[in-house]
Design a protein that fits this description.
homodimer; about 525 residues; alpha/beta; Rossmann fold; 3 domains; 7-stranded mixed sheet; 17 strands; about 15% strand; globular; thiamine pyrophosphate (chains A, B); Acetolactate synthase large subunit (chains A, B); Thiamin_PyroP_enz_TPP-bd_dom (chains A, B); TPP_enz (chains A, B); TPP_enzyme_TPP-bd (chains A, B)
């Protein structure tokens, strides 16, 4: 057995049976091994940013890692932005990066690069294997590290000779790394704070946004008067009709500071103390009052649901019911497309158990509040601010979730970063409805330019405007085998959205907004 | 004056007047400064791989650096693969990477990443500036480092506060770093080797492939019987009718070893001793005989033209004439598209002073030999093996070279990596003819899979085949505002190619091969 075969067999033994791939020469022994050993579903992406973003979306829904297959340092580099997003999402993932053979690397052939150096900042675990016999054990360790709570990116770099050499050994899965126990002291401290009656915000993140954890959080809030909020950008939130809701911490620093004015305590559940997304001259980088005291109920790697349950017990908080939703109109509006009118359509027509992938950026401001009472769904956000995650996330979520509709709400500027994902959706015949919000500008940057006190002149506009020429998303989608249509009013959108969600396979709707 | 204004003014003072950009929030003060200070041509790319590849193509033709404008670590990361190619091409370039403000970075907001760590492996110079007063001096040092022979990528990381803070100071250009003198010992040693009469290969790279240097190399070869060859992948070669020609070192290791069999001496001019592109089990990583002796006439940072001129003098090599070219038929063939038939069309119809960007991969095997006697032109290659450089290089070369036609010979799989470059070509109305060679597979990898002794099964084919669904490059181009047409025979291609080259603005031809 060569190293590549031990790689495939150990991945399968560890429960990793899906591989998003863009292979190259140094990975051909792995590809050949995949042919010989059944059981791995391989999905080709035409760019590595698609590959890593899809593995992120897959793991958010499957709750277990996919593998990626990347080619040398530059192939990894192309995937780094979405690895950054996955790192910020605490997504479990196993990167397999093929590289120059051990003897070849010192010769500095053209494709040689600092693969390990590039991988390390986005990885919780990084290793370069140097012999075939070690491949299996390294794979098992990578999967273990990726799955260790709260989850993370493990990067395994395999010089081509360790794949082609004989002596490969399949490794058994390693025991999961135990989740750290919830600290009784932290629960006592949070209990004291919540009983004080002082204005308190409980900030939830990660697995604290699952259905059961949210229910505990709402018991605590109801019993103590504390406010609940989630972090701004979350890997996955269970929401919709019949589920407990939390608002998100506002993105804009000033709005967040206004919202949190008067808060005396922050209780953190699975997140660090929040910072604004960017800094601005003369403005605080913290969205909460300077004199607020920050308490940690549980760190990201702890069992957040258990911590909330213990806090419920300590507070003796009685059960609560999900408030009845207002009757949701199935009627949709008419007329011009606006964030609110599109949100109304989404709220009314979102399919049951849809998976919403949100990279809608500025135009999407009304979408999250507007879908609060929609059919039950999961909401996946861009987590690390590296745009271009939406379409790949949708691809991966759809691979992980047959039978559920994926709805990708996609800003046009961000969508152009990784539009190659559309082709993989077509090839895999995935049930994805893509809604491109074509405002034909980097709208967020026009706001930011105004924030710095500038009136945009021609040079600035040329860098922030995506018109001239207009992108034609219908042709772009068709060019990659995805059917598509355009709408420029609410009725047109509602008709297309309802139709697209009933279809089998992907469909793209370009909203000219 | 704030830091951003000193940045723009110092760049202009140092002769950097073109900026390929994809800005974000942390760069808004730079964008605002560009509005206030005239003189910088800004070209927007819809993905950072377009931005960095375009800056590479620009500098290869302009002979001076462009600036890039990139947004934080992930924006830089998206540009790394083409920075790797630029690093391998010794291309002068000044990366401006905006980043989190100095006080904000420790708060680890979502977009915070290891910007400097990612930049360093592809940069000859890297600096993070920490105060506004230092920005100007850092820019001047960056330009100096980028322009130091043989040229390199300088990466300047600017936290947003150093751009918005007052106290910026414009710096004067720094004196160029002197080019190291050619070593008389090295010239004497090469003279001895070449006079020995033993089989010798002179391997040329970098600026040794300019017109004057090639003429000296041919005088040496004619006087001594030495063979001449260039490295396989070159940043820029002056070639065509009326110019001296050199073959390239073959890409395939076995072919290269056969070609160099019997060589006793290698004389290196501007390159390290060659290695094969990849390693293969049981094969040498060196393309030359084990017992060949390697001599260095000049290192990449020396004046290669001067070294060859000194060697000419030492050998008393008489002038030589460019051999008369065979009469080049303006007739083109008929029938099926093959590498040879397409090469014949290119040879016959390439416009005078065309700039050819070659990322044609497997299907392009006949293009370089087939255009040897075409109208005089420059030939730009993918240098670092990180695919996705072709369309961005063409964009940048066209920005640098108004009045010259750029012909991009583009494999389909590689073209999909950075297809967003088409939009920038349309926006800037650049005279680029793009020929997409649509074989609808990663053909090079099918060869490589055969090399490892495997017959591709379904899993492998699914990862190496770009059909299902077929990409439609005409629609993809149209979707980004570029006119396009398809040809499936030689006559059709010749007609379209001649028409496209006479047009103003970009035109894409999809060859279904």
């Amino acid at each position: 057995m060569n190293g590549a075969e031990s790689l495939v067999k150990t991945l399968l033994a560890c429960g990793v049976d899906t591989c998003f791939a863009n292979p190259g020469t140094s990975e051909m022994h792995f590809v050949a091994a995949l042919d010989r050993i059944p059981g791995m579903r391989c999905v080709l992406g035409l760019f590595e940013g698609v590959v890593t973003g899809a593995a992120d979306g897959y793991a958010r829904m499957a709750g277990k890692p996919a593998a990626t297959l990347l080619h040398c340092g530059p192939g990894l580099a192309n995937g780094l932005a979405n690895l950054h997003n996955a790192y910020r999402a605490n997504t479990p993932m196993v990167n397999i990066v093929g590289d120059q053979s051990t003897d070849h690397r010192p010769l500095d052939a053209p494709l040689t690069a600092d693969t390990e150096g590039w991988a390390r900042p986005v990885s919780v675990w990084t290793r370069t294997v140097t012999q075939a016999a070690s491949v299996g054990a390294a794979v098992a360790a990578a999967v273990q590290a990726a799955r260790a709570a709260p989850g993370g990116v493990a990067s395994l770099i395999l010089p081509s000779d360790v794949c082609w050499n004989p002596g490969g050994e399949v490794a058994a899965p390693l025991a999961p790394i135990p989740v750290p126990r919830v600290s009784p002291t932290a629960v006592q401290q949070a209990t004291r704070v919540l009983r004080s009656g002082e204005p308190t915000l409980i900030l939830l993140a990660g697995s604290a946004l699952g259905e059961a954890a949210l229910s505990h959080a709402h018991r605590i809030a109801a019993a103590t008067g504390a406010r609940l909020m989630s972090t701004t950008f979350n890997a996955r939130v269970a929401r919709g009709r019949g589920r407990f809701h939390v608002d998100r911490l506002p993105y804009v620093g000033k709005v967040a500071r206004d919202t949190l004015a008067g808060i005396r305590h922050l209780v953190l559940v699975g997140t660090a103390a929040p910072a604004t997304f960017f800094a601005y001259p003369g403005q605080s980088s913290r969205p909460y009052p300077e004199d607020a005291v920050v308490h940690v109920l549980a760190r990201p790697e702890e069992d957040l649901g258990e911590a909330l349950a213990h806090l419920c017990d300590a507070l003796d908080a009685p059960p609560v019911q999900v408030p009845a939703a207002p009757a949701q109109s199935q009627e949709v509006g008419r007329g011009a497309l606006s964030s609110e009118s599109v949100a109304q359509v989404l709220g009314a027509l979102l399919p049951e158990q849809a998976i919403v992938v949100d990279e809608a950026a500025t135009f999407g401001r009304a979408f999250y509040p507007g879908t609060r009472h929609a059919a039950p769904h999961d909401w996946l956000n861009l987590t690390g601010g590296a745009i271009g995650s939406g379409l790949p996330l949708a691809l991966g979520a759809a691979v992980a979730s047959p039978g559920r509709r994926v709805v990708a709400l996609q800003a046009d500027g961000s969508g152009m970063y990784t539009l190659q994902a559309l082709w993989s959706m077509a090839r895999e015949r995935l049930d994805v409805t893509i809604v491109v919000l074509a405002n034909r500008k980097y709208a967020v940057l026009l706001h930011e330019l105004a924030n710095v006190g500038a009136t945009p002149g021609k040079t600035a506009l040329d860098m922030l405007d995506l018109g001239n020429p207009d992108l034609d998303w219908v042709r772009l989608a068709n060019g990659m085998g995805v059917e598509a249509a355009r709408a420029d009013d609410v009725e047109g959108f509602a008709d297309l959205f309802a139709m697209a969600n009933r279809r089998s396979g992907p469909f793209l709707i370009e909203l000219v907004v």
